[in-house]
């Protein structure tokens, strides 16, 4: 993984909220986790369980109950 060092102004309240939500410690860990979560959210936009997962609705429901 390639890392870039930069200087950025960070909203302390948003950082604290993100830290609590993500369960992270420290600025770098929180910012990196938030960036990964934003990318994951973008990748899942438009995902439709019924269209994008093989299986009958019953099989999908059973799989969901396992987690």
Question: What is the domain total for the residues?
Answer: 1
Chain-averaged pLDDT: 86
* Tally of DSSP helical segments: 4
- The proportion of residues forming helix, as a percent range, comes to 55-70%
The whole-angstrom Rg is 17 Å
Cα-to-Cα separation, first versus last residue: 30 Å
Task: Sketch the major β-sheet.
Answer: none
**Unreliable sequence segments:** none
Which oligomerization state do the chains in this entry correspond to?
single chain
The percent range for strand residues is: under 5%
Shape descriptor reads elongated
Topology:
Elements (H helix, E strand, L loop, with lengths): L11 H11 L4 H18 L4 H4 L4 H9 L2
Helix pairs in contact: 1-2
Structural description of this entry:
- By secondary structure, the chain is mainly alpha-helical.
- It has one domain (12-65).
- The protein has four helices and no strands.
- The protein has helices at residues 12-22, 27-44, 49-52, 57-65.
- α1 packs across α2.
- The chain is elongated.
- The mean pLDDT is 86.
Short description:
By secondary structure, this protein is mainly α.
Question: What brief labels describe this structure?
Answer:
67 residues; mainly alpha; 4 helices
């Amino acid at each position: 993984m390639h890392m870039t060092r930069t200087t950025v102004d960070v909203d302390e309240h948003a950082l604290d909220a993100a830290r609590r939500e993500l369960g992270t410690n420290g600025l770098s860990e929180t910012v990196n986790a938030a960036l990964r979560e934003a990318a994951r959210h973008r990748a899942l936009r438009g995902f439709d369980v019924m269209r994008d997962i093989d299986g009958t609705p019953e099989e999908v429901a059973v799989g969901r109950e396992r987690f």
